[in-house]
TrEMBL record:
UniProt record, GO biological process: methionine metabolic process
Protein name per the record: Uncharacterized protein
Pfam families referenced in this protein's UniProt entry, alphabetically: ARD
InterPro entries the UniProt entry points to: ARD, RmlC-like_jellyroll, RmlC_Cupin_sf
Cross-referenced Gene3D superfamilies: Jelly Rolls
The organism of origin for this protein: Mesorhabditis belari
Source organism, top-level taxon: Eukaryota
């Protein structure tokens, strides 16, 4: 995973990196300290380890069901969907996502107008804590597949 401070006045194609100048990168630990976001790298071939990590994270975040979302150019209405997913949201539950293929960005806003961009790829497991403003988009590859975990009661989610 790559993490950096995003240009707060970025305009144009959301899928571009939108670094500030000079670029300011963060480590996963710095991201956790600043925003409370937890990131894990999982070897997807190591199924025992994957199961163990997922069950720990699911218990800690109190999520108990999941779905799979694939975003690609094959999708009807892709640009409308991406517009919607880029709208900032605040959830009242942790938002737990495992990237199973492709790449994507999560942007989080720990302070007003201070956006941090997480570039995620296969094997990245991200926990965005409840209450933290965030949004989502793809990279120029236009392809990602994720497993999203949520509370059973939480039947209204985007995408
Ligand atoms: C790949 S998850 C897309 C949706 C999303 O990020 C969301 O709804 C967060 O709350």
């Amino acid at each position: 995973m790559q993490i950096w401070t995003m240009d707060p006045y970025a305009c144009g194609d959301k899928r571009l990196p939108h670094h500030i100048f000079p670029p300011k990168r963060l480590t996963p630990d710095q991201l956790t300290t600043k925003a409370g976001v937890m990131c894990y790298k999982i070897d997807m071939e190591d199924t025992m380890n994957l199961k163990k990590r997922l069950s720990r994270v699911k218990a800690a975040s109190n999520v108990n069901s999941s779905d799979v979302l694939a975003i690609s150019e094959a999708l009807n209405g892709l640009s409308g969907m991406l517009e919607e997913l880029y709208e900032p949201v605040i959830r009242d539950t942790d938002w737990v996502v495992l990237i199973t293929d492709g790449m994507c960005y999560f942007d989080v806003e720990p302070l007003e107008d201070e956006w941090i961009r997480l570039q995620c790829e296969k094997g990245d497991l991200v926990v965005i804590p409840k209450g933290l403003t965030h949004r989502f988009t793809v990279t120029p590859q236009n392809y990602v597949q994720v497993q999203r975990f949520f509370h059973k009661r939480h039947d209204a989610f985007r995408g």
